[in-house]
Amino acid sequence: MAATTETQQALKDIGGDYKHGFVTDIEMDVAPKGLNEDVIRMISAKKEEPEWLLQWRLEAFRKWGREEEPEWAKVHYPAIDFQDIHYYAAPKRKDGPKSLDEVDPELLDTYAKLGIPLREQEVLAGVMGSPNIAVDAVFDSVSVATTYKKKLEEMGIIFGSFSEAVKTHPELIRKYLGSVVPVSDNFYATLNSAVFSDGTFVYVPKGVRCPMELSTYFRINTKETGQFERTLIIADEGSYVSYLEGCTAPMRDENQLHAAVVELIALDNAEIKYSTVQNWYPGDKNGKGGIYNFVTKRGACRGVNSKISWTQVETGSAITWKYPSCILQGDNSQGEFYSVAITNNMQQADTGTKMIHIGKNTRSRIISKGISAGRGQNTYRGLVRVMAGAENARNYTQCDSLLMGDKCGAHTVPYIEVKNPSAQIEHEATTSKISEDQLFYCLQRGLTQEEAVAMIVNGFCKEVMQNLPMEFAVEAQKLLGISLEGSVG
Amino acid sequence: MLEIKNLHAAVDGKEILKGIDLTVKAGEVHAIMGPNGSGKSTLAYVLAGRAGYEVTEGSVSYDGKDLLAMSADERARDGVFLGFQYPVELPGVNGMTFLRTAANAVRRHRGLPELDGIDFLKLLRQKASLLEMDDSLLKRAVNVGFSGGEKKRNEIAQMAVLDPHLMVLDETDSGLDIDALKIVSKGINALRGPDKATVLVTHYQRLLSYVEPDVVHILARGRIVASGGKELALELERDGYINYVPEAA
Q: d(Cα A457, Cα A434) in Å, to the nearest integer?
């Protein structure tokens, strides 16, 4: 048990009084690097988790040891040393900048372009002492957020951090956790299952229509959810919820590897709309640094007439590897995937969706817009599978790629598997370039090069952007332009 | 207003304009006619500053400024408008958003306050009615699915909203039926003024019966080979270019 001894020693060195990983009053910020059962026990103990969840994590860890990193995606990066990563860090960081004066001016410049208020900038840039302002900066006053929270409670909607929900609603967590993305689903999901830090839990009770967009903005203490986020959203019969994840402002993070898992469950006649704007640090122009974003997102339309709709705007990260999918199990259920993915400079994205038609009369719709600039590589990878019992399944897929410059790449890899002859599957794909004609036309009307590119690209992405909730749409439109600055001319 | 001196320009290394001299005073309308391939559209693009149209010699002064030193978008904001022979489609780009962005870019440049959505809509409705244009056209994506006539009308509507000083219209009359031609001409005439100058590039005399030019020039093989009054256009209509361009026969 050399590793265990080493871990204990390492923990002692940090100042802890570690015994068997069950002591919770250890004062420390970070677990030693590397992953073993003791680290997992420590994470679980730190979070005061019940025994079953610890066992669940340990099972995941054992399975992870037997799995291999996927290599089929069209992304290239140096091998990750999984023993060189900290798997637990205390939520409070103490080394943040003390004021905006200490923040990278380039970052502030981008905030200014997005029109983000100063106090919110402080929160985003991680200025010390700012987190409690977050809610107040976005919604004018803490009381507004509190009012919303109260309203949600009155309607029986549970919306809070995952760790909190483990304590307050263990029965729901136990029933649904891992029911859409099983522990051994894939390498990164398994890793996440073993070490997940925190995330969001949402439960909307029967017949309740959530009256507002649920956004991480509403939640205090969500900023530090860390690199292994875990989200679980359950929409009970006849309910509706729209959830917004992420932020248009550029997010920096010390952790290069991000492996989140999101599970959605829609029961009979329920609908979930999940929107993401992802703008993690993409690395510099030469591909140095940047986040590896290896995410598993999947929704299960379990009930009849249920619907899950994914909308994503992916502009950040050095590498994006994600396939928000829908399992269309209930009869007449519907899945949708609307995606904009931008790769500029040295960014790589391999993203798409899986639509698994199991129930009768199930429908799915895929609209993917990939934009490549600089030396970016952008791949759409999708699967439409119609199982034998899925009578009258329908799918419509449209994959459009836009190229800027002559050093980038766009790739489309659609898989279609149909085992029922009544299925109707449509697939359309186009690849185009921003033409000189279009650019010149815009310039001749007085738009700057940047405005012109932003306008043309937003036009190209319109079908996706119009699915974003209003709160996000305007900022996201600006974000597209900013992400492509300097990519033409 | 516009003073072109010994202008030479090349595209892909091939010289198209071979020494053009042209002076357009404020308040004047000049028509430029000429056979296919004579350099009419090239002249229009050079004035608008299109990339790939390389000026190799000569100068262009606009309102006393060195036009060639300005970028294409600077020229546009400074009041140079090009009506395109083939207006470009911008899929997914809402016509109103596009034009409002452009109008506000011009207004900022002129030190005027930007227009909000409501004021802009008022201005747009007023200009569009002049061209008997349907509102719905402006709510669609720019030029997408427009007929030839609708595209040209849209160009003139944009011009009316942007209120330029120098208007260069490249074959705005091509592809128009007689009713559309009358409407477009009405639009152009409405924008004439003592502090504005217009350059009409056209193949046909018929536009000039509605928009009366002060001077007509004949462009052939990259040079202006003749200039005269509007009677010159009528002569071309009757005889063709044979008297000016022998090989046109």
A: 8
